[in-house]
UniProtKB/TrEMBL annotation:
Residue span, tRNA (adenine(58)-N(1))-methyltransferase catalytic subunit TRM61 C-terminal domain: 80-237
Annotated organism of origin: Candidatus Korarchaeum cryptofilum
Any one of the GO BP annotations: tRNA methylation
Alphabetical list of PROSITE patterns matching this protein: SAM_TRM61
InterPro entries per record: SAM-dependent_MTases_sf (IPR029063), TRM61_C (IPR049470), tRNA_MeTrfase_Gcd14 (IPR014816)
PANTHER family xref list: TRNA (ADENINE(58)-N(1))-METHYLTRANSFERASE, TRNA (ADENINE(58)-N(1))-METHYLTRANSFERASE, MITOCHONDRIAL
Name this protein carries in UniProt: tRNA (Adenine-N1)-methyltransferase
Gene Ontology cellular-component annotations: tRNA (m1A) methyltransferase complex
Ligand binding (S-adenosyl-L-methionine): S111, G112, A113, L114, D132, D159, D175
GO molecular function, one term: tRNA (adenine(58)-N1)-methyltransferase activity
Keyword annotations from UniProtKB, A to Z: Methyltransferase, S-adenosyl-L-methionine, Transferase, tRNA processing
Domain of life: Archaea
Amino acid sequence: MDLISEDDAALLVVYGKKGKPKKFLVKVKRGKVLHTHKGSIDLSEIIGKEWGCVIETSKGERVEVHKPILTDYIEKIGRATQIIYPKDAGFMILKSGIRPGDTVVEIGTGSGALTMVLANFLGRSGRLYSYDIRRESLETAERNLRLLGIDNVVLKHKDAKEGIDESNVDAIFLDIPDPWEILPQVHERLKPNGPFLAFLPSCEQVNKTVLKAREVGFGLIEIHEILDREYESDERRTRPAPWMIGHTGFIVIGRKISRS
Ligand SMILES: C[S@@+](CC[C@H](N)C(=O)[O-])C[C@H]1O[C@@H](n2cnc3c(N)ncnc32)[C@H](O)[C@@H]1O
């Protein structure tokens, strides 16, 4: 049975007045105490217990102990930049057509949120080459990747405008302010019919990207925006949560057409 051990990561959840969950991502250590607004939690107590168990704080409040999944990590990772949220990352992966074992390039590592999702999907037999111009971003991303024990990513400190080193790549993901500047190289480095997927916060960027993508030889160009509205439900009513992530960005996708 998969029991909780020392040094495991655990997601502890305590509930506020209106049933709102407050989440704590912790490393389990004997003797370590977590202090929350609902009392303290002795982490020694959960060692040897089953995942999904329920314990109590020092004030007798309920604490759920969950085994963290990828989205839990993404919510809590250190950030050096804006990140791509799971709602967008999941859609981008599906629309890229990539499969475990593929070779993928990412331009704009940032904090590594999309990097984590891509690397997790590609698996041990896959390879992700991720470029960033800023050392600070790469350092943050490296720390975040280490949290998950991800080892199929090659982080590259390089301006992608100076060239993409890999060729015959299955897909290229771009999260930089001006992807249109490098679409000619992206086209050259993709395998036949390979897709690019660009994440862009503004309509002006979308337009420039689409026009350039047509010019350099991408077909089946699509533009999407993904909206995710969370709901809350109790004995009295079910309704949209008062807060939502209003706008993240647009996703532009194109598939390489061979120049004949
Ligand atoms: C918004 S962040 C990417 C966030 C990332 N997708 C995530 O989910 O954490 C954009 C990153 O692109 C990098 N960048 C901008 N222009 C670049 C270029 N020409 N080549 C490589 N990286 C670039 C920036 O340094 C920044 O870290």
